[in-house]
Design a protein that fits this description.
Blueprint: H1 5-19, H2 26-33, H3 37-49, E1 53-56, E2 62-65, H4 74-82, H5 105-120, H6 125-130, H7 135-142
């Protein structure tokens, strides 16, 4: 899975908002995280349409979370900004059919989606801000092999 800049920036913006005590402008968030302000503005607008953030104009202009940080999962952010967590050629894994030697490939793609859900639906913005991952996810991170990149050999 590749995590796009759009998702990375969106999550980072939400983390800043979760830690803030008052609404923040896109420019202030961008400055805090070293992000391009215009692109972040587009991302925040998409998150606003999804109900993840709320924007205000006027004297107290800026963005704040649309619901508690404990109720915003990383999966929510990915779906709002990019669509489904896992697709095969733009289709949902359960709709795929294969023949012959590939007949069981669909099961692998569904398992990939299930494993992504197991992490991304259970890690919230609050978990990340506090540095308190759910135990199942913390266990994955504690494995030394998790920190080692792999290359095609």
């Amino acid at each position: 899975m590749q995590i796009s800049a759009k998702v990375d920036y969106g999550v980072r913006a939400l983390l800043v908002l979760a830690a803030a005590s008052e609404p923040m402008t896109a420019e202030a968030i961008a400055k805090d995280q070293g992000l391009p302000a215009k692109f972040l503005g587009v991302i925040l607008n998409e998150l606003r349409r999804a109900g993840i953030v709320v924007s205000h104009r006027g004297r107290e202009a800026g963005y704040h979370l649309g619901r508690p940080a404990s109720e915003i999962s990383l999966a929510d952010v990915i779906r709002a900004l990019e669509g489904p967590l896992a697709q095969v050629r733009g289709l949902r894994p359960e709709t795929m059919t294969y023949q012959g030697a590939a007949q069981h490939l669909q099961e692998a793609w569904v398992a990939v989606r299930a494993s992504l859900r197991a992490v991304l639906e259970n890690v919230t913005v609050e978990n990340v801000v506090k540095g308190e991952l759910p135990s199942e996810v913390a266990q994955l991170v504690s494995e030394p092999d998790a920190w080692v990149g792999r290359r095609l050999s």
